[in-house]
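Intended use. Records such as the OB domain-containing protein entry shown here are meant for training and evaluating sequence-to-structure methods. They are not intended to support clinical decisions.
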Amino acid sequence: MGDDYPVYGPQVKRPLRVRVLQLASVILAVAGLILLYFYSIHRDIPVVKVAEINPAMNFAYVRITGEVIRDAYVFKSGGVVFTLNDGSGDIAVMGGRAQAEALQRAGRLPYVGDRVEVAGSLSVSADQEIKLRMQSADQMILQRKRSDTSSAIMLNPVPLAEVSAAQKDERISIVGTLRNIQIPGPGSKAPYVLTLERDGAELEVVFWDKVFQKLEKTLPMPGKIISASGKVDVYKGKVQLKVWDDADLHEVPEAQMPIKASIADIRAEQEGAVFTVTGTLGEPRSIPGGVCYPIRDETGDMAVLFWDKKVSGEERDALEEGVRLRVTAPLVAYKGTLELIPENIGAFSVEMNE
């Protein structure tokens, strides 16, 4: 039997030509995937206006440029959301756990007044509710903007007595009276330390020279009311609030200080003042452009009104009848009803039921 005949059985080998072709096809397939990936990253992604988005653009990959009108909020589940206005309309920008963690690690969570250019896939529902789903934190360009403290929206401040080590790495806002200032010596790498006090509790707010320089080397005087936003940290067993941006530290006029009150103590003639109320939500009632919840504490009840343009339906997911809520918002008296109207998702928080 000549050598030209194949030998069948376990000793059979594929001809060299077949093996070369198989290897070549694998290499081509992998190369194609790599090229496709680089194309998706570097391709010229079209910029669109919010007002131009329609249902036919569902899943389209686009870029949107605008100003942040609602602070980034990181959900306990790990996702992140913030709202942009591009001059033609508003759009909610969503990201998953990976995007939220990347933005947090880099200190790039967007806040009100920041300019953002972001790419992602559009989600357009049947009722024209539109969202942009960010696929990568690398495809967001952030330009910080110093906030105007005269028009800053007071977020729902956490009482100083409730700030604990369990909140480490969480971003919160606090308000308190400045009691003491520690200034580092010349050449020292130690931080500046402001001690705030409110309702008998104290908390240290720390920041470094970079923030001090942006504050035009001016510190507030003791006795002033200070608002600070930053990350909770623990240093040598002591809870602190670390501030990384000068825009997150400013004086608050006494007129803007939230008044912690029982519902029975709130009067219609106080309309316009900012109140902090804690109570239990009742059955919601849909109204054009929003939803209204009754809220009750041990002394009485009033209403909390959530406008869709300020707090989206997705941001209200945790709210339902029976939930205990703390809300900080301006008082409105409307047709004999007292209402609190939160400015954004940062103005309320769900409390643990007692």
